[in-house]
Design a protein that fits this description.
single chain, six-stranded mixed beta sheet, mainly beta
Length: 479
């Protein structure tokens, strides 16, 4: 709160930290507990620059569930047998899609199902009868992931550092940027059991990494060595790669623990289309995207372009003109059948720009996020910096206020910072704009933000010091 300088995305709230430079992120943890994470926000550096940020209950407080016997991290990553920066740079040069990853990882290791990696497979020791808390983070670059533990149901108790109404499931699905905390009781015969994760790939005809990463839950009484015992561990049953039904069923189960006091009434009612697009190739050249074009992505037909000489927040705070404009559209500039199978090519080309949408401090904002089927429909994990928001409803097809407003959950909607926008579907989110600064909203599939699937909210200062952005720190990286 009030420290947008510590948010991190390059050219949004700061210029990048220079080679051999440093910058200290200073912020106050207030009214939050649970599992979050930190990561680089410059090009594709976050492919390997990330880690967990765990906020435990205050001294004298406890979890809203029985204390687990032990806690462990399950951090999901994505690995290329190449420099990830080279991968994205090549895609930018050709205009095509980047090469898919070579592996997924759990806590930095691919696991038993890849060549030459079984000796380093992550092992989580357990004892029979105990209940453990596993904090699952999807730090993968471009892939939503199904996760399951063989023989062991999981009870979901939190997502994105907000507690949930507990429910039990055999599989969870996380988009990049999302976290899920689960309780698991070790009540199976002593042995070794795989934790496995593989892709949820919702886009039709698009290449994806179809490998499976594993770690091992090992009962201490199983009598197996950590390097392997008699037989391979039990493997869980994971949904099919394109099982949208499984992803949707999991998402619909997530609720706040009890009735919430929603911000209201709504003062800014926004409608953002989300999806892919195409841009013309350079004159005289043929690019690697469909029909010789370049891949692009947009929100409300605006493909976001990062500034290059100053961050948006610095330009806003210092009154420097020419870095951004304040004309991001509050509704789509053209209305059409967003999820139709044959969308006109005239609607495929977005406008490039560095546009923000300005909000007055304290405004209650409701946004309909509408997926589109331009180029292809896909599940998009949409993340908003600086805020948690309530997810009031999710659905498929085109959002229709005449019928879909009646589906809004006004009692116990989940509070999250990333919503998995269903393939060719919609979601409705609500929050109060009480954190001044410039806040990026983007798809957490990093190939999509590379193509421009992002926008920024500029929340103005309110009245007095406690409603105003703090001054920039002295060590803010120079541009």
């Amino acid at each position: 709160m009030r420290t947008a300088w510590a948010d991190g995305p390059e050219f949004i709230t700061q210029c990048p930290i220079r080679p051999d430079g440093s910058y200290t992120y200073r912020f106050t943890v207030d009214s939050q507990e649970g599992t979050l994470w930190w990561h680089a926000h410059s090009s594709w550096l976050r492919a390997t620059v990330y880690g967990a940020l765990i906020i435990r209950p205050k001294a004298g407080s406890s979890y809203p569930f029985p204390n687990p016997k032990r806690e462990a991290l399950i951090t999901l990553g994505e690995w290329w047998n190449a420099n990830p920066i080279d991968v994205v740079d090549e895609a930018t040069r050709t205009g095509g899609a980047p090469n898919i990853s070579d592996a997924f990882t759990i806590n930095g290791q691919p696991g038993d199902l890849y060549n030459c990696s079984s000796s380093d497979t992550v092992i989580l020791p357990v004892s029979a009868g105990e209940t453990n808390l596993y904090r699952v983070i999807n730090a993968a670059m471009n892939t939503e992931l199904f996760v399951s533990i063989a023989g062991h149901p999981m009870t979901v108790v939190a997502t994105d550092a907000s507690y949930t109404k507990p429910f039990t499931t055999s599989v969870i699905m996380l988009g990049p940027g999302q976290t899920t905390d689960v309780l698991v009781t070790m009540n199976q015969p002593a042995g070794r059991y795989y934790i496995a994760a593989r892709a949820y790939a919702s886009a039709q005809g698009v290449a994806f990494d179809n490998t499976t990463t594993t770690a091992i839950v090992e009962y201490k009484s199983a009598g197996c060595s950590s390097k392997g015992g008699p037989g391979r561990p039990a493997m869980p049953s994971l949904p099919a790669f394109n099982d949208t039904g499984a992803a949707t069923a999991f998402s619909k189960e997530i609720r706040s623990p009890s009735a919430v006091e929603l911000p209201g009434p709504v003062e800014e009612d926004l409608f953002f289309t989300v999806g892919l697009g195409l841009l013309d190739c350079q004159p005289g050249k043929t690019c690697a995207g469909p029909n010789g074009a370049r891949f692009a992505a947009s929100m409300n037909n605006v493909s976001f372009v990062l500034p290059s000489r100053l961050s948006i927040l610095q330009a806003h705070k210092s009154g420097v003109p020419g870095v951004f404009t304040e004309d991001f559209p509050a509704v789509p500039p053209v209305q059409f059948d967003y999820t139709a199978n044959n969308i006109s090519q005239a609607l495929q080309k977005p406008v490039q720009g560095t546009k923000v949408l300005k909000l007055k401090y304290g405004t209650v904002v409701q946004i309909v996020l509408q997926g589109t089927n331009i180029v292809t429909g896909e599940n998009h994990p949409i993340h908003l910096h600086g805020y948690d928001f309530y997810i009031l409803a999710e659905g498929f097809g085109n959002f229709d206020p005449k019928t879909d407003n009646a589906k809004l959950n006004m009692v116990d909607p989940p509070l999250r910072n990333t919503v998995a926008l269903a393939v060719n579907g919609w979601a409705v989110i609500r929050f109060k704009a009480d954190n001044p600064g410039v806040w990026l909203m983007h798809c957490h599939l990093d190939v999509h933000i590379t193509w421009g699937l992002a926008m920024a909210l500029l929340v103005e200062d309110g009245v007095g010091e406690l409603q105003s952005l703090q001054s920039p720190p002295v060590d803010l990286p120079a541009c």
